């Protein structure tokens, strides 16, 4: 007759030994609120206070901490810093038990909920959802968790649809709301409409005045940085993109184009630029303008012209992005040539598209010294001083058009034009 000896599993033996030692469970809690409204603010503080007291009061538990995310959506765990820090600590063996108010507080995404719970369970960490009375070590828990988390996700979708509908209805009614914390020149008025902040509005007017006077966008950005004026986001250094955005934003003329971006998926919260994918709403005279509408339109034409003729070559040279081919409209670019013995170099300018098409542009090659001489002659005829710095070239001329017969047409920032021919 065979003799059978039962060998208890190592896990059970370890568990029994641990129970004899009466080792305390290391317990943490997770709290989250999705908005910063007053009632949610109190809920956030209440959750943190409750779990701190609840865990500390249990003699069999060791308090690890309360991990909390405030003003963060629960549809995705990617940006929830405290949540991810708690999970990492648990997986490293620093937490044995996690308490949370409900599945919707833990995550509104079914996939995130199940994946996180399974990882924690595999590491020997239990999660207790108090509202649903679910314990993840319970064999029946996953079925209920799947159902309940799916309901939480559906609730999130419903909330997202309601919010989107409310926003669209508000837009249809002509209501304009700006991101005031990062928008220069306006604050939310008593009637809910944008109200001009005169001190900030002066900065906006300065940007438009400098651009219309012939200053480049880069110059304006460097000028504001040098003046110590903070950006709309409160940073010290101004970016070219920020200046361009202010120059092209229709809200400064008192109108508002709404729905410039839209959310692709309520779970991922991915936003995209609206290039006609969904409805947009244009509200005329929605608020008081900082920039006169006629002035704003002139700036837009100038921006459009600048973009249409933008050079493919970036350069800090004073004539870069100013000299235009009279045949194809592309900018001239500066190239470096050397003589046969490679003992001398020449700075030569010609159309950037000269050799990109089947027919070569007839406009000429130009030496750098010839361009400077033509500029000096045109500026002198226009009444400007005889000594010019590199910055003066960009400041006083708007553009230079070169034709095949070596004619230069200089268009100055004040509207005057001068024609110079190089023999």
Write the layout of secondary structure elements.
Elements (H helix, E strand, L loop, with lengths): L9 H12 L3 E9 L4 H19 L4 E10 L10 H11 L5 E4 L2 H4 L3 H13 L3 E4 L4 E2 L5 H32 L13 E3 L5 E3 L1 H15 L4 H10 L13 H9 L7 E3 L2 E3 L7 E3 L7 E3 L9 H16 L14 E3 L6 E7 L6 E7 L14 E2 H14 L8 H7 E6 L4 E6 L4 E5 L2
Parallel strand pairs: 1-2, 1-3, 3-4, 12-16
Antiparallel strand pairs: 4-5, 6-7, 8-11, 9-10, 13-14, 14-15, 16-17, 17-18
Helix pairs in contact: 8-9
Describe the structure.
The protein is of the alpha/beta class and 423 residues long. It has 3 domains: 11-155, Rossmann fold (3-Layer(aba) Sandwich), CATH 3.40.50.1390; 180-307, Putative Large Serine Recombinase, Chain B, Domain 2 (Hect, E3 ligase catalytic domain fold), CATH 3.90.1750; 310-421, no CATH class. Helices cover 38% and strands 20% of the residues. It is built from 12 helices and 18 strands. The protein has helices spanning 10-21, 38-56, 81-91, 103-106, 110-122, 141-172, 198-212, 217-226, 240-248, 293-308, 368-381, 390-396, and strands at residues 25-33, 61-70, 97-100, 126-129, 134-135, 186-188, 194-196, 256-258, 261-263, 271-273, 281-283, 323-325, 332-338, 345-351, 366-367, 397-402, 407-412, 417-421. The strands form 6 sheets. The protein has a 5-stranded mixed β-sheet, with helices on both faces. Strand 6 (186-188) and strand 7 form a beta hairpin. Helix 8 crosses helix 9 (240-248). The mean pLDDT is 79.
């Amino acid at each position: 007759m065979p003799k059978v000896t039962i060998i208890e599993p190592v896990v059970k033996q370890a568990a029994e030994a641990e129970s004899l030692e009466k080792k305390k469970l290391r317990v943490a809690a997770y709290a989250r609120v999705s908005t910063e409204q007053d009632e949610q603010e109190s809920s956030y503080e209440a959750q943190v206070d409750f779990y701190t007291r609840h865990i500390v009061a249990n003699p069999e538990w060791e308090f690890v901490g309360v991990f909390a995310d405030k003003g963060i959506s629960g549809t995705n765990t990617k940006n929830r810093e405290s949540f991810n820090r708690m999970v990492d600590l648990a997986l490293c063996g620093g937490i044995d038990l996690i308490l949370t108010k409900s599945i919707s507080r833990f995550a509104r995404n079914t996939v995130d909920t199940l994946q996180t719970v399974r990882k924690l369970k595999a590491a020997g960490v239990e999660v207790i959802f108090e509202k649903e009375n679910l314990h993840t070590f319970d064999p029946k828990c996953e079925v209920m968790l799947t159902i309940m988390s799916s309901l939480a996700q559906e609730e999130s979708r419903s909330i997202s649809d309601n919010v989107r509908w409310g926003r669209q209805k508000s837009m249809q009614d002509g209501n304009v709301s700006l991101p005031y914390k990062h928008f220069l020149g306006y604050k939310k008025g008593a009637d809910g409409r944008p109200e001009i902040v005169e001190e900030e509005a002066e900065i906006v007017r300065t940007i438009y005045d400098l651009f219309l006077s012939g200053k480049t966008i880069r110059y304006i950005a460097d000028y504001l940085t040098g003046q110590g004026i903070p950006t709309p986001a409160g940073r010290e250094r101004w970016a070219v993109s920020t200046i361009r955005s202010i120059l092209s934003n229709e809200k400064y003329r008192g109108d508002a184009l709404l729905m410039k971006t839209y959310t692709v998926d309520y779970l991922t919260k991915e936003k995209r630029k609206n290039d006609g994918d969904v409805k947009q709403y244009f509200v005329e005279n929605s608020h008081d303008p900082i920039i006169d509408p006629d002035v704003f339109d002139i700036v837009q034409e100038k921006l459009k012209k600048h973009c249409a003729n933008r050079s493919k070559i970036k350069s800090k040279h004073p004539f870069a992005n100013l000299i235009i081919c009279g045949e194809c409209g592309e900018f001239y670019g500066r190239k470096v040539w050397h003589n046969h013995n490679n003992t001398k170099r020449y700075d030569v300018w010609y159309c950037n598209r000269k050799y990109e098409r089947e027919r070569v542009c007839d406009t000429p090659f130009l030496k750098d010294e010839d361009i400077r001489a033509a500029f000096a002659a045109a500026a002198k005829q226009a009444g400007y001083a005889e000594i010019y710095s590199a910055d003066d070239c960009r400041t006083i001329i708007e553009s230079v058009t070169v034709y095949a017969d070596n004619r230069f047409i200089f268009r100055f920032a004040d509207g005057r034009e001068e024609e110079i021919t190089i023999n």
